[in-house]
Design brief:
535 residues; alpha/beta; 2 domains; 36% helix; rod-shaped
Length: 535
């Protein structure tokens, strides 16, 4: 027994009938939805009139548009580039383009009214909003979009919870979003904003300020805030003061690219103890002599900058700055040491920036550059040393061993001393002021000018090498010595040599020669063993 009816649509006529049926259903549904939205708009208008009295034309348009996905244009022209839509000239806009802030607050927060607003949120363009928009402590379940609007008294978002905020191309007074929570993006692009603060706020998406102009005593403060996406400041972003990112946590990148810092007072970026999960970009920056870049104790995944964007000497702070790599910009040690020297003199001797730079260079396969950086760090510590003895010792380590990073440099010093000693001791022998230590050999030497045949002959090179190298016995030092008591004959000595002067000078140099050997040779081996390095 059949329990149902089976419909079969076969052939072209059947398919055409099915398509026609679907079109009818869609049209009826859309018409019904449109009627429902129109009815909701009428309801909102009636509720608003009951609470706020007479409504402006822009307010009526906003209320009727709120239940739809459409944007409410308060302007007679929907061309965003039209002169009549420039929010900096909103003072000339008539009352028909005015929307009271309290009506927007009511629409988004009232239990009955907010239920009618479309899930895509409230969208208004080209309106002059009078009064301060006070969303503080409210929970707003739909996005807010106020584009090309003039909001002269600003916006209060303190402790608010909202979906997202889009203020593109708007002119606003102060925006205070301290301790607020946004589920999505906060867009402050291409407009003019008179002081923005998001102290300890949480932004679930991006903070975008591309092309925005930020003014006021504190143009933009994001202290101790959490931004889960990117913080973007591109396309001639302009601030006439300090952009404050101290203690901020950014999930992806913090990017200043073609940004402008202006004004006669301090300006720039203060990111002390900030954390950036991605790359910090500091590229193509227009700055003043008072532009600063403070990255003290900040942690970023990577750094991308350029030399033209580095602040003036004394305006860069890098102590405690940790970064994983150079994604772009100068990466050679010479350029980066110039970068470190942009710090104030008080910070230039701090070792951490040098250690961090050397570590990154080693990780990127530039060990020679890392050595240059480590030596520059030691130079900074030497310059800071005020006590004479330690300073001399550090200078000796620098010139002899490159602070232990270039231990083979000591071989040149050894060669220098040995060659110089060879020449000097050879002169002393020919001047007859280096004489045998044996008494009988000395007598023969005095009489004939040469030692007896059985006596070891003198070699200035071997003599120099033996006396320089510790614990090396080549049987020259024990048989020959500079002799201050020996009187060279007139024919064998230069005219300026007195009876004892030349021998005394040579003996003093011999002591220096021996001490230098006992100092440089152990340092060479200590350097080769890495005992003197302080990586």
């Amino acid at each position: 027994m059949e329990t149902g009816v089976e419909w079969k649509i076969t052939g072209a006529p059947g398919r055409a009938a099915a398509v026609l049926l679907l079109l009818v259903v869609f049209t009826v549904t859309a018409y019904s939805l449109e009627n429902q939205q129109a009815a909701a708009g009428i309801t909102l208008e009636r509720m608003a009139r009951a609470q706020f009295g007479t409504l402006s034309a822009a307010e009526v348009v906003m209320l009727h548009t709120a239940p739809t996905r459409a944007v409410a244009w308060a302007s007679p022209s929907q061309d965003p580039n039209a002169p009549i839509n420039d929010p900096s000239k909103a003072a000339s806009w008539g009352p028909e383009r005015t929307i009271r802030a309290e009506i927007i607050e009511w629409l988004l927060s009232d239990a009955q009214a907010s239920r009618v607003v479309h899930p895509s949120g409230l969208g208004v363009k080209g309106a002059r909003i009078t009064g301060k928009l006070d969303f503080s402590y409210l929970t707003i379940t739909s996005p807010i979009m106020l584009v090309l609007c003039a909001i002269g008294d600003g916006i209060d978002l303190q402790y608010a919870h909202y979906q997202s905020l889009d203020l593109r191309s708007s002119f606003t007074g102060p925006i205070v979003g301290d301790l607020s929570v946004s589920q999505g993006d906060v867009l402050l692009r291409y407009g003019h904003y008179d002081g923005v603060s998001f102290y300890r706020a949480e932004i679930g998406g991006n903070l975008e300020a591309n092309g925005g102009q930020f003014a006021g005593d504190e143009p933009l403060s994001v202290v101790d805030a959490t931004i889960k996406g990117d913080a973007l400041f591109h396309e001639d972003f302009t601030a006439n003061g300090v952009v404050d990112f101290r203690l901020a946590r950014i999930g992806r990148g913090l990017s200043f690219n073609h940004a402008r810092f202006t004004g006669a007072s301090d300006n720039g970026l203060e990111a002390e103890r900030a954390t950036v999960g991605g790359t910090l970009y500091w590229v193509a920056i227009t700055q003043t002599p008072r532009t600063q870049l403070d990255l003290s104790d900040a942690h970023v995944g990577a750094l991308w900058d350029d030399e033209q964007s580095w602040p003036a000497p004394g305006k860069l702070a890098l102590d405690g700055f940790v970064y994983g790599e150079f994604s772009g910009g100068p990466a050679d040690s010479a350029s980066r040491l110039v970068w470190l020297r942009r710090q104030s003199r008080a910070l230039q001797s701090n070792p951490q920036p040098y250690r961090q730079l050397a570590e990154v260079m080693r990780a990127e396969g530039r060990p020679e550059g890392a050595i240059n950086v480590e030596m520059a760090r030691q130079d900074a510590l030497t310059a800071k040393e005020t006590h004479f003895g330690p300073r001399v010792w550090r200078l000796a380590l620098k010139w002899v061993l490159g602070y232990g990073y270039r231990p083979l440099r000591a071989l040149w010093w050894i060669l220098l001393f040995v060659v110089f000693g060879t020449v000097l001791f050879g002169w002393g022998y020919h001047a007859r002021i280096i004489t045998p230590t044996n008494e009988r050999a000395y007598e023969v030497f005095v009489q004939t000018g040469a030692p007896p045949p059985y006596y070891p002959p003198f070699s200035s090179f071997v003599y120099s090498l033996e006396n320089f190298l510790p614990v090396v016995e080549l049987h020259q030092g024990q048989y020959w010595r500079p002799n201050p008591l020996h009187m060279p004959t007139a024919s064998s000595a230069p005219r300026w040599v007195s009876a004892t002067f030349g021998a005394r000078i040579l003996r003093w140099y011999l002591w220096v020669h021996i001490l230098a050997g006992w100092t440089i040779t152990p340092l060479l081996f200590a350097g080769l063993a890495g005992l003197l390095r302080n990586d």
